[in-house]
Write a structure and sequence with these properties.
Shape: globular
Order of helices and strands: HHEEEEEHEE
Number of helices: 3
CATH topology: Barwin-like endoglucanases
Number of domains: 1
Number of strands: 7
Helix content: 10-25%
Largest sheet: 6 strands, mixed, barrel
CATH class: Mainly Beta
CATH architecture: Beta Barrel
Structural class: alpha+beta
Strand content: 25-35%
Radius of gyration: 19 Å
């Protein structure tokens, strides 16, 4: 009897967890511009470049980010300038990730800020390859000028393009 009750409770918990995850995924996969704009902090404007520590000749960083995650060129991530760390609520090893809205060339994307670094002068953010390809599909521009970066409040964001 006790085993059946435990199995029933376990089944109910698993069902609830799956339902909650599915509901969260449906609601959170695409954020509207209005929702994102309401959650934004003060905007920073500067230049954005890209980085990949696995490319030959890389000058900065390594495969492990400041958050402790491994660099992933296929994720929607970015590194902010070290002096902006506090503006984004930290970006520390083992802490929950921070998020930002990046806007340039008529496009918007939410990125997970998982790294910091001493970026080249004039640059405020380094985008990973996937994020840079969103703005520059052929990776031909190299540096995107007049990029607007706005810290997002909260930790419930799903990185990716904003619809």
């Amino acid at each position: 009897m006790l085993f059946r009750a435990s199995a029933a409770i376990c089944g109910a918990v698993v069902t609830f967890a799956v339902f909650a995850a599915a509901a969260r995924g449906q609601d959170a996969t695409v954020h509207s511009s209005a929702v994102v704009d309401q959650a934004c902090g003060d905007a920073l404007v500067g230049a954005a470049s890209t980085y990949n520590p696995f490319q030959p000749g890389t000058r900065e960083g390594g495969p492990e980010t400041a958050s402790g995650e491994r660099y992933d060129p296929s994720a929607w991530t970015a590194a902010i300038k070290t002096s902006l760390r506090e503006k984004f609520g930290g970006v520390q090893f083992g802490e929950r990730p921070k998020y930002a809205l990046v806007e340039a060339v008529g496009k918007k994307v939410i990125v997970k800020i998982n790294d910091v670094g001493p970026l080249m002068p004039g640059r405020i953010i380094d985008l990973n390859e996937r994020t840079m390809r969103h703005f520059d599909p052929g990776m031909e521009i190299g540096v995107i000028r007049d990029v607007k970066v706005m810290p997002l409040l909260g930790d419930y964001w799903v990185p990716g393009p904003v619809g």
